[in-house]
Amino acid sequence: GESRTVVEENFVSEACSVVNDCGGIYADTLIDSPVRRNIILDTIGSRATASSTQQTRSRIAFGIYYGQDHMEGLTVEYNTVARGSVGIWVDHTPSSGNNVNRFNTLFDNEDAQLGFNDYSNARGATPPDHCIPVRDDMILDNLFFSLTSTQLSMTMYEVYCVAPINWGTFERNRYYSVTSPTLIRREHFNAASGRIFTYTLPQ
Prior knowledge:
6-stranded parallel sheet; single chain; 7-stranded mixed sheet; mainly beta
């Protein structure tokens, strides 16, 4: 990835038909870059090529994925993502910052419409610095639409911090679920036995 790479106005359908844990648009390093006005549909994710580890036996097929190495000043906007496993997945490293997700429409994605994790905090840091308790993500004016009882609006996997992570600012987003009042799931791995929190819209 490079500074000011522009990813815009692409139509991506049925990506990841051969491999698992991939995305229609997938980036490890982008700096001051827009990802905008893309349409990503039906990302597949092939379980046949999945790792034998427990973590990746399931289908992992992101519409848009970014993180893992260095993401800074990224603006993800006006994208439409439907029918993957997760619409947009945001990974984090110690150098991640000033990233914005806004005006996206995420619809009918199997597990969640939007996801966060801090798995990649281990890159470029030494314990206990893997824990970064406050982030500055901006999640603004998005539409999250879930069609089944198992589809979440948002999921958060928190690996390294003892306390829950403050991921940033969430404003003016719209959350819809046809069948389930549970919209958000926070899975906190660093508790003694692991903790899972779920939230309904009023919460």
